[in-house]
Amino acid sequence: MDDDARPAARLTVLSGPSGVGKDSVIELIRARSPWIKLSVSVTTRKKRDYEIDGEHYHFVTRTEFQRLIDGAQLLEWAEFAGNLYGTPRAQVEGWLAQGRPVLLKIDLQGARQVRAAMSEAQLVFLAPPSVEELKRRLVGRGTDDEETIKRRLAHADEELAAEKEFDRTVVNDFVERAADELVGLLGSSYLAPAQPNPGAGVP
Ligand code: 5GP
Question: Which ligand 1 atom lies nearest to the CA of residue 105?
Answer without folding.
Answer: 12
